Amino acid sequence: MSESCPLCLHSKSTFYSEDKRRVYYQCELCQLVFVARSQLISLEQEKQIYDSHENDVNDTGYQKFLSRALAPLLPELAEASQGLDFGCGPGPALAKMLTEKGHATALYDIFYYPNTEVLNRQYDFVTCTEVIEHLANPNEVWAQLLNLLKPNGVLVVMTKLVIDQARFKNWHYKNDITHINFFSRATFDYLAQHHGLSLTYYGDDVMLFKQSAIV
Length: 215
Ligand SMILES: [Zn+2]
Description:
Strand content: 25-35%
Radius of gyration: 17 Å
Bound molecules: zinc ion
Keywords: Methyltransferase, Transferase
Oligomer: single chain
Protein name: Class I SAM-dependent methyltransferase
Shape: globular
Largest sheet: 6 strands, mixed
Structural class: alpha/beta
Number of helices: 6
Distance between the termini: 44 Å
EC number: 2.1.1.-
InterPro entries: SAM-dependent_MTases_sf
GO molecular function, one term: methyltransferase activity
């Protein structure tokens, strides 16, 4: 059985892995590893799980975790840049940290800050940390993220990366049932090339995209 890729929409994927709860496929084109869409939980179940997480805006461990996305972004920003934290969750710590650095950061989250007004304008930067692994429709959201950027805008994405099939089998990240898309460097390289973006990797899980200033 082959599933269409939810990211690049390519029709061919192959079996990648399976565990007690789910089957994982890999797209033959962009290499995304994904859960069969027939095995997704409902949005209500998803929200219940997020509600039980503790993402305290003042938690220093959480802030340290998010600073991995903040550190490569800050040198890219002009003074008083304006941004959006897409999928900020219930405790928007990253937006708070950016705002404290003088970069006003708007909030959007489908569950906690569902203010779609903020999606009708463009920003100097957009952050999307620990979000894209949850999306049922990553194709649409990726296009939306790019549309939210001003020319030469910066997009920071944070998600854990697939290394290989053997390590995937024992990967704690896939055992979170709200995680349904698993990206690798190959997938992000594909996205950068396909959309004409420059891409830099930071550490194990931070990707910084810039719209290439091609005249
Ligand atoms: Zn694909």
